[in-house]
User: What shape does this take?
Amino acid sequence: MNNPSADHRGITDTFASRRYFAKFESITAHLGRVAAVLQAEGALTKEEVAVMNRYIRGIAYTFKALSMKYLLVGRDTGQFFGSLNMDTTESGFPVFNELLVMANDAQQADRHLAGMPSVEALKDQMVETIIGEQTIPTRLQFALSQRLYYEELQRGHLFWAQNDPVVTWLSGVGDRRTYLVHWAVYDSQVNLPTIYLMELQDTGRVALPKDQRRWPEVQAHLMGQALGGLKLLTIAKGFDESFDDLHPKRLRRFHIGPMYSHSYTQQFGPIREVLEKADAPVGQDWALAWTEETLESERVESERSGWFGTVEREVFALDPFSGRGADLGATRMDRAIILPERPFQQLAELNPPGFASVRKFVVSDTGRVLSY
Assistant: This one.
């Protein structure tokens, strides 16, 4: 049996840790621009882009909080504090346990902050130490970093291990209303953020967001099925059969990552050679995978329910090519890779097999996004 922890390592060097968080600060900024490109092409609606940006900002806030927590890693702070534990193989993101600890810290953020000096008081003490004792106030810097960490947690809006479903009205009134339901999880098996979007029609008597019986059941059901190993077809059919008056018309799943970096992760296959030969400068040594799975309803069939009633059941369209749809459990899968200019140039020169069908988003620090 494989030991997942063998792929995990701590970033114990101060400067390596700060470069890692700076890298993700840049990556998350680019993700919002990629979503905007997809909206301009019609691949995402305005409402879907708003949802995606909400989760992308949450990922950015999570990395910002963790960067404060581990700001003084590798320095003598007078306390044993450890370092960020990341998944080096086919992830590049922090391990799942980092988010669990962060969620627990968030529950106690108010208590921690109440017992800490203010930011201004800590800065004043740091100045006094530098001038009076002529030493670097490492322990005060550590205390300040922890205060800033808990302040980030207190602000909220982070990407948690579980992000419960939210429903947004799209159209329709009366006996048939259309909603967009979205939720997200941090997949503990692969240590990656995963975002779900479901467009559904509601034929219930009470609107879904106001239904005190159905809405809690829907939330619990969807979170229970938010497993990366489950096919979209399994999730959608299970939902369709569990709720007779809710009809899933389209289900999408976005996998954000893995993040590949020659400096931080262990690559296998062509991407290893691409990043190695690119020899990109600091901040540009990375590539991020973006995968979208889509399942769409093809038609509706009526099914008997009880003695005299009937209910609608969705028949989902599967990928028709070579019987792949049954294995994929989706109508289609679209793969993309987001990367800076230097790695892209190397990818274009090497032209490795398997990347011809992968869409490339080339990003720059100026905010430009080019699609190939």
